[in-house]
Amino acid sequence: MTAVLDAVARLATATAGCLRAGGSPRTAYAELAAARAVLSARSAAHPGKAGTPAPDVLRRHAAALEVADAALAMGAAADLAVHGRRASVTGPPERFWYATARAPALWWHRVRGHAGRRSVFFQNAVRIALALTAARLVAGVDTLPHGFWATLATLTLTRTTMDETWSTIRSALAGTLAGALVTGGTLALVSTHTNVYAVLLPLWMLFAFTIGPVKGVGWAQGLFTVLVALVFAQLAPPTWRLAEVRLLDVLVGSAIGAVFGLLAWPRGAHDELRYAAAELLRRAAEIVVATSASVALEGSPRREGRAVVPAGMPGHRSLQHAVILAESAYGQFQCEPAPFGGRGRGPVLPGVDWQAALMAGHHTLWGSERLLEPPCTGLGPAATAVSGLGDRVAGRMLLISAALDPGGDTPAGQVPHLARSLAGADAEPPGAPRLYYATVSWLDSLMADLSRIARGSGELGVDPDGTGEGRPGGTRDGPEGAGDGAATTQNGPAGPGDTAGDPGDGPAGPGPVPP
Known about the structure:
The two termini are 42 Å apart. This protein is mainly alpha-helical. Helices cover 60% and strands 0% of the residues. The protein has 16 helices and no strands.
């Protein structure tokens, strides 16, 4: 086990060098992979056979193997991030499937993952498509000169929430009004001297495209109003009414954006995130139950270590899709300042750590895949205990999902505070193999994720009776779970991105966050 931890340290150093100087962690990666294989073979003896390590040794071996898996994933991800398709460390193909996939396959994966009304990307596309259609119909009216400005205003001012759209419109109209006044004064003073407009145009373009994006939408609209006046003044005899037309078109486009922002998902991701996180936990609960039951299965092939359980077990594809939708909703949620109805209402469920919910989904995927890898050793008398622990963790997931997204007949309430540790996780049944300790460690790490979802709770201790209520005086943020490397913290980085694994082929992959 010491050799594995030393190899982990060397790979961590090589990974840091890869990110800093562009080197390759290939050598350190190969050393850790070899050390992990040796430790895995050494601790894979079946219960009752000679040479079976002691229970405390098996528990440490299971934890060391989890650390090694996390380090291997880290090294492969860093090499891919730095070198792309020329990376010398590819990692498990089912985890980093997107690294070798062609662009059309990635596009299709993105489209298939977001082709549904529960995707915030789909909602945004529908909202802006309807708004642009209405703006195009209005722009086609003969009495609206330069109607394309209305379409452009609709496109640039419509936001994902009604509050943000209204705030943007107010700033844009104020800036456009100021720009119209400057435009009217300029056109009245310069009149038909086009040489003046030709000299001012490049200087104003440099000023507008430099200052506008920095100062905000109000400045951008005001500076652009003057800019288009300088352009059109060189094409036709200018009058002050050009500024009036510009202001009217922006007003029409803003009104269209406001109407469709109110009609089509006015709260943006603030509502959708609750549903997406609840659905993620429901799917994760199904995987936890199925994995625990599969690990606990008994039979002659199991006892002899010859059973093979397919990695792509039913339910993984649904959980991967739920991870994609939840991550995209969380990414948009982070960009939305306030829900529809005013800032006084505050964010949705301020006591919820959404990152912890996302990481619970990822840890469920990764842990399930690893536990179902051969050799599938039988658990013996410990099989019943594992199945019971899995059912309890799944029950906690369903409890939190019901609080996040209560059904029509489900009482609404706050997200429950759960204990950090799982009762029974420290048991050492006689003759239990390493697979038992790996499964229990995974379930305990999921409980750590679930305990972090509800913020602001008092100190919680170990769950003594499976009720989810901890003893005062314990610790809520204890050592990180070993289910999938380090468990997430409340202020940690966001979870992996949209490419959460190929829905048809395997586990989640830490792909880039979608724009």
